Amino acid sequence: MPKIDRRDFLKLVGVSAGAAATGCADPTEQLIPYVIQPEELTPGIALTYASSCQECGAGCGLHVKTREGRPIKLDGNPQHPVNKGTLCSRGQVALGWTYHPDRWDGPLANGESIAWDDAISTLAGWLSSAGKGEIALLGGDPGQTAGEQLDRFAAAVGAERVVYDPFAEEALISAVKNVFGVEAQVRFDLSQTDLVVSLGSDFLEAGTHQLELSRQLTEARDIDANKTSARFVYFGSRLSLTAGNADEWVPANPGSEGVLALALARAAWDAGARPAANADQMEALLQGVDFTKAASISGVDRGEIKRVGKALAKSQAGVAMPPSSGLRSRRAVSTASAVLLLNYLIGAVGQRVRILEAPAAHPNRREGYKALSKLTAAIAEGKTKVLLVNDANPVYAYPGVAAALEKAKAAGKAPKLVSFVSLEDETSVMADLVLPNHTPLESWGDRVPRPGVRSLQQPTFRPLKDTRPTVDVLWSAATLAGAEGAPSGDFAATLKAAWADAGSFHELLQAGGVFAESGASLEVGLSSDLKIDAEAPLVEGEGEFTLLPIPSPLLGDGSGANLPWLQEIADPVTKLTWKSYVEISKNTARSLEVSHGDIVNVTTSAGSVGVPVYVRGGIMDNVIALATGQGHSVGYYAADLENGTVRGVNVNDLLPAEATDEDGGRAWLTVKASLASTGEAKPAGFIIKSDNKRGRDLGEVIELSSFIRAAKGHGGQDDHGGAHHAVKEFDATFDSDEKSPYRWGMTIDLDKCTGCSACIAACYTENNIPVVGELETVRGRNMDWIRLERWIGEGDTNSPNVVTDRKVENRWGNEEVGNNDVRNSPMTCQHCGAAPCEQVCPVIGTYHNGEGLNVMVYNRCVGTRYCGNNCSYKVRKFNFWDFSHLNWPGDLALMLNPDVTVRGRGVMEKCSFCVQRIHTARQPAMDEKRDILSHEVQTACQQTCPTSAITFGNLKETGSDVAKKSSDKNRSYYALMELNTRPAITYLKKVKRGEVKG
Amino acid sequence: MADTNEPAPRPTESQLNRDILSVMEGASPGYFLLLACAALTFAVGAAAFLYQVRYGMGVAGYSHPVYWGVYIVTFVFWVGIGHAGTLISAILYLFRAKWRNAINRAAEGMTIFAVMTAGLFPLVHLGRVFKFYWLLPYPNQRALWVNFKSPLLWDVFAVNTYMLISIIFFYIGLVPDFAIARDRSTGIRKLAYTVLSLGWQGTGRQWKSHNRAVLHLSGLATPLVLSVHSVVSWDFAMSLVPGWHATIFAPYFVAGAILSGFAMVCTLMIPIRRIYKLEHIITDYHFENMTRFLLLTSTIVVYAYAIEYFVAWYSGVEAEQTSFWERAFGSYWVSTWIMIICNGVVPQLFWFKKLRTSVPVIFVIAFIINIGMWFERYVIIATGLSREFDPAVWGQYTPSYVELAIMCGSFGFFSTLFILLIKAVPIVAIAEMKELAIHERLHGGAH
């Protein structure tokens, strides 16, 4: 036996231990602490940067929360006048772009990676070889300074720049020119209004200003602050989110809004309304208005028109809202003009309807569609040699571009296509050259949403990928190609120079911009050239239904479709996910013998698509509606990669590329459609399975008269025939440790909740909630911690009304045309004082902590799911799969909130009242030896709620908002109160205001 | 019991020894074929379980809000099956129902295996099965403890206590029989039976101690028969779920358990009797007595069904009413009516003596009851959870193939053990049969 001495032995031990360590475990990775820690950075403490949201033109201010250098959450900037600290669903999840698995790693030529220098010289070669007018720069609005630079670049290389937004307010801007004779933009201000008449305007869910308008409308309608709260009438063909928030829904044919507006104006005139000036001209314009004709075109009873017209005349601060983009017919400018005229008559112009200076740096704001049509014609003819695309996906979203490119390709005259977008999309995958831009969180930029409001955007993150700012790339290529006029520095320097007049750049970055709007409207009068062609809309083609394209509240024009959260969060109205559905009325479904999920062929003059139906009562029989945004063939989430197919349908496939009158942009409401059943079906991914609350204590309302009576002290709760509350009131402050100064609680004001779903999006990003995908959503395994229920009326107990079961007519829901008793009611963990879940857990995985929170110990849970069964509110979600590993492809895991555990497979989870935020607030309070104050903690849902419907805080803190609101004698109730679970969430009843009086 | 047919003439003691022990000797190819089928079924279920452990509970058909399904259904089903054994051995022993002697051994074996099978399911259904031991209260370094308020924990105790007592009871009864087997076997078997018989000599003192032990254990086991399924029923009754939250659940579940247990005894004993030609030992008289139990418990179960609906209506609680309406006429109506017909209607045929004494009829009806009792638990669990307080999250449950495979696997597990048991122990309690025979010889006539 060979001798082994001590040294050999130790060597052997070392080698085998090393082999064991490396062989049987995951490869060792090094954790390198900061050698020199950045001064401003403390691990564990979030740093917040002010920036600006780039998801739409609204220019909302952001506070980007970063942890250890990574942005992990977007919150609104409370100082910003547009959003005042709130964000919409889209803004909440825009964080995902930066970490998205579809991001381009660097520049590509024909799908192959190349170096930036080569890419730029290739582009330069193309630019120099193309003649004047053979280069086009097509895309969305990249912001103020970037836009100016693009214009200058276009001028330097002889390119034509086309800016197009499918939902831009071209018709309204043209209408301002028509009615008032000025080039200007319009801003509505609802904060002081007392009567809103929406003429097909879905301003709470669609369009650029939904956040601001939601907030203002809620302010004007705040029943506690303002007993004469504003009234709201909706004219339209479909029970949209906005219609569901109105006091009354008057069903009106789509496209008849202009006729209606004129009739309303005439009725108001008859009731004594007179404009501040131009009364004679007004009288002449209203002379010929024929109520009978208006009633027959719109389908609205003339008595109703007169009643609402009279109410407008009597109102102190009425306002009429022009139709949303989906309702833009070939007569859109006339329609918008009629609405402006009505506003002028009732004195809203200058007050609620502000005419503001037109923004600069937008080459074709009124003729975007016209310029696009010219460009597509040029592409099709092969005249365009180089097509540069920035901030847009024209092949998918712009009408005519895909067809034009195909035509040019067939003729061998395809332009060189260069895309500057950061992520894969339909355009960039077919581009000859992809020169990816930074994502918004990595970029400099600015936006000017309206005069006096300038939002600054700063990078909050070093770029994750090998990307460059588009403006810099374009100028480099242009300079190489011999063009003059490049700015001296890079884009960051250019931006800084552009802001030099506004003060210290450092302070500007801290504030997020300059917010000094005067708000003053331009003085305008009626133009002498004013002409209004108020007739029925020109809806053409075969078929018995008018096809109503709806701008999707979550996906927008389709640019949001690749953000998984926007696919998984239910549409706020239909509560459907992940697919396109054509909305048809119950009568239509009966005649076609179809039900939820049955696939029908929708055929128009422009094309035909197969799409599942969603049967609802809240749509007129002669209308079918199809939302925009789906139909992507490219995108990790946008396309249906599981089945290798397109996800949903693109409504553009059904619409001819038509313009409105008078440069009013693209017309959406143009075609008739016919339906034919295919006999096939697909199960539908519903999040909310029923709108029938069966009279249970969920989504309660109080009649305005009862409320006023109660508020005056004549009796308590109203008695509207619903369930009586036999259970004794309880004191929620008893439901925490006696010695604890806290009992965390919440109030949710259903009178303020519009159902927009921004809270859900905020919850997803704050709490690392996994997105489960279409298949699992259909199975009912979505993980959302907030469920936005949508009840129609009190419901009835005779019908089952569950939409999971197809083919059963009474499961089509309780909606009816003309009935808009919609009660949006967010449901989340109630943190019950007597929680049914806590007592059944065998391992104390969930328990009540001293501060009254129902806490969930993920590590302790063994997954019996008993708590989920026993929870009366059904808010506990189970991790059926290993979402913590499956769910964050690409760099998405980098956006996880390090304060929140990512849950493993087989455990339950639920709303924690953002306990991590309570803990964040605890340390400073402890340092100062005091208790946490209620206003120091905001849950993610509360923070983003555009209408401040959610209040969170300490119920034991006398005088806190939440304590005051939860003790509201007139409107408070508890969900499913008869179960006596002692919830920490107090709901405040929605106020049913009823019809406006003429 | 005046109208029962008289028991057949007793076989002699040597006949008993020979006939019963012959069952244990040798094995036909048919036996091995059956054993292989059972083992294979179990293997499929085990593979399905491993698949589930690897990928997660997502492979089962559960979804929000139906978090319990086939696994808990099958758990309750097997616990119920496990009722007959101890009832027969303990309660009927105390009541001196002598006819039990022919069937108690098989019934006790069935009980133990059924409870063992049942015991698998709370584990199968755990989201994190590898942490199952957290359900057991024992001092540990993790400083974790269990929640004694949770009915699931009561379950852990109830089922384990029941299993423990059943095993002891089974073993004590086996000791004299092991001694007989010891005396008649050779080789390794002899060694095994020698050890198992614990030196049994059949002395008067040993018999006295043995009988006293059986008596005391019967006294101990009797409340357990009632408690174990009562506790299982509290998993449901103690919750808030409409359709679960009912005070009748404990007696309702016990009656159902006895119904299913006796049905399973019939289902097992009829083929065994036929294959091993034990008709002279396990006689039609025994089966007729069991049918009377089936009839009684089926009637109790029907009453419970009726009372559930009555209380739902009488309470005026809309959620309860809706839950029961949906149960009978909603999307689960097929299961509900299978349950009512199999457990409530079909056993009522035993009012007819002709049917009660026809062994093929008993076999078919017992089998139908087995099916019905599985569906009873399915209906309670699935419909209850599908139609709760918040209609926005009403759901629909459809079992997945993995769940069904594991459920079938449990039948394979049970069958494998039972088939092995036939060869391992005397399937009829020889000593007790002899005691009965001697007793009758001395006093004459049946009791």
Strand content of chain A: 15-25%
Estimated helix fraction of chain A: 25-40%
C-alpha end-to-end distance of chain A: 111 Å
The name of the CATH topology of the domain at 730-786 and 828-985 in chain A is: Alpha-Beta Plaits
Count up the helices of chain B.
Answer: 16
Task: Provide a count of the helices of chain A.
Answer: 31
Main β-sheet of chain A, in a few words?
Answer: 7 strands, mixed
Sheet having the most strands of chain B:
none
N to C succession of SSEs of chain B: HHHHHHHHHHHHHHHH
List the helices and strands and how they pair.
The complex is a heterodimer of chains A (998) and B (447).
Chain A: H1 6-23, E1 47-52, E2 61-67, E3 70-76, H2 89-93, H3 96-99, E4 108-109, E5 112-113, H4 116-129, E6 135-139, H5 144-157, E7 159-163, H6 170-180, E8 184-188, E9 195-199, H7 210-221, E10 231-236, H8 241-245, E11 248-251, H9 257-270, H10 279-287, H11 291-298, H12 302-314, E12 318-321, H13 332-345, E13 353-357, H14 368-381, E14 386-390, H15 394-397, H16 401-410, E15 416-419, H17 426-429, E16 433-434, E17 445-450, E18 453-457, H18 470-480, H19 491-498, H20 505-511, E19 513-515, E20 545-550, H21 564-568, E21 582-585, H22 586-592, E22 598-604, E23 607-616, E24 623-627, E25 658-659, E26 666-667, E27 672-681, E28 701-703, H23 704-711, E29 744-749, H24 758-766, H25 774-778, E30 787-792, E31 822-827, H26 836-840, E32 846-848, E33 854-856, H27 866-870, E34 877-878, H28 883-886, E35 908-909, H29 915-927, H30 940-944, E36 950-954, H31 961-966, E37 972-973, E38 985-988, E39 990-992
Chain B: H1 13-22, H2 29-55, H3 70-81, H4 83-94, H5 104-124, H6 151-184, H7 187-196, H8 204-237, H9 249-275, H10 284-315, H11 318-329, H12 333-345, H13 353-356, H14 359-386, H15 401-424, H16 430-443
Folded structure, characterized:
The complex is a heterodimer of chains A (998) and B (447). In chain A, 27% of the residues lie in helices and 18% in strands. Chain A is of the alpha/beta class. Among the domains of chain A are: 177 residues, Dimethylsulfoxide Reductase, domain 2 (3-Layer(aba) Sandwich); 137 residues, Barwin-like endoglucanases (Beta Barrel); 215 residues, Alpha-Beta Plaits (2-Layer Sandwich), CATH 3.30.70. Chain A has a 7-stranded mixed beta sheet with strand order 5-4-16-15-14-6-7, with helices on both faces. In chain A, strand 9, helix 7 and strand 10 form a beta-alpha-beta unit. Chain B is an all-alpha fold and 447 residues long. In chain B, helix 5 crosses helix 9, helix 6 runs antiparallel to helix 8 and helix 8 crosses helix 9. The N terminus of chain B is likely disordered.
